[in-house]
Specification:
With 345 residues, the chain is α+β, with helices and mostly antiparallel strands. Helices cover 32% and strands 23% of the residues. The structure holds manganese (II) ion (MN).
Length: 345
């Protein structure tokens, strides 16, 4: 705040509020002044806020008008930061009204709090590790059940049930489970189609545990894999290992992406890898840094990222392999314990 010359900062993005205060409810504003903080929420969260919030004074405004209460508190400040990526046009107008300051005093922030979140504290890494290990345990339970002819939704439901049974707070995102040609869609939703007698099944899923997300993808083969299937799988695995080998403090995010992409291009499938190689993971499933061709960031020790190249061939199928990786002082530690050799079911 000092560097940005702010008298106050209004935080609206809930994962940022959770990071700064511990509050996990679904309705809150956080007003920061140098050395002081107020968290505004509504009556549903009175008890939860009392238990969760650290370092901020909790206020529950009458009639639930959080904006008015925060605006009134900020009235004497001239320069107030707003999270430009998270405030709607309507909210900006409302803030001007309740705060009563001049439009010129509104200072857009972009990614400053997210940059703080990028490098994880040891207890955050421990929380992500627990989430990753819990999710990984579900994969063996899925493969024990997964068979040709099973509906995608039934397979996804079985997996999700196992994850909840194992103690997951919830899912980190909608499970992707797609067999055969359906797997060529990077973000396929499980449907009523039966899994094929012979072909790949892509499974991409994650859990939330203690507020932190996991993210993993494995691709298994039903029936005997043919030559093309083996070649595609081996290429994705080689690309994934090459990207992991490129992870170290100071490495450009774009260089990690390039390491994976080069392997896939050399094998002739460059046109079938339409997404970036990975992303940060933490309180949110997708957060900074991004690991794409145009990424500008450099990796730093303590960051937690995914490495997930893939090849998707329309009408045929897809293969993706994804692990969660911690950037360490010496390179990378892969948190995901599930094996990666081609599994035939
Ligand atoms: Mn991912």
């Amino acid at each position: 705040m000092e560097a940005a010359r702010l008298d106050a900062l209004l935080v609206v993005h809930l994962p940022n509020i959770r990071y700064l205060t511990g509050f996990s409810g679904s309705n809150a504003l956080l007003l920061l002044e140098p050395g002081r903080a107020w968290l505004y929420t509504d009556g549903r969260y009175r008890e939860q806020a009392r238990l969760e919030v650290r370092e901020a004074k909790v206020e529950i405004p009458p009639r639930g008008d959080l904006w008015k209460a925060a605006g009134r508190r900020a009235r004497r400040h001239k320069q107030v930061g707003l999270e430009a990526d998270h405030v709607t046009i309507a909210q900006r107008a409302r803030w001007l009204e309740v705060w009563g300051g001049h439009e010129k005093g509104l200072r857009p922030l972009r990614g400053e709090i997210e940059a703080l979140r990028m490098v994880k504290e040891p207890d955050e890494i421990a929380a992500i590790r627990r989430a990753v290990e819990l999710a990984s345990g579900g994969f063996a339970k899925l493969t024990a059940k997964l068979r040709p002819g099973m509906e995608e939704t039934a397979a996804a439901g079985w997996l999700e049930y196992q994850l909840r049974q194992a103690g997951a707070d919830g899912l980190a995102f909608d499970t992707i489970l797609a067999g055969g040609a359906h797997g060529a869609q990077v973000h396929a939703h499980p449907g009523s189609a039966p899994l094929p007698q012979r072909g790949f099944v892509v499974v991409d899923y994650g859990v939330q545990l203690g507020g932190y997300c996991s993210d993993m993808t494995r691709t298994v083969h039903l029936g005997e894999p043919g030559r093309k299937a083996r070649a595609v799988y081996a290429t994705v695995l080689e690309a994934q290992m090459a990207a992991i080998a490129a992870v170290k403090p100071g490495a450009a995010s774009a260089a990690v992406d390039r390491a994976a992409r080069r392997v896939i291009q050399k094998a002739g499938w460059g046109a079938y890898f339409p997404h970036s190689t990975g992303h940060g993971v933490g309180l949110e499933i997708h957060e900074a840094p991004r690991l794409g061709a145009t990424s500008k960031e450099r990796l730093a020790a303590g960051q937690v990222i995914t490495i997930e190249p893939g090849i998707y061939i329309p009408g045929w199928g897809g293969v993706r392999i994804e692990d969660v990786v911690v950037v360490t002082e010496r390179g990378a530690e892969v948190l995901t314990p599930t094996p990666k050799q081609l599994l035939r079911l």
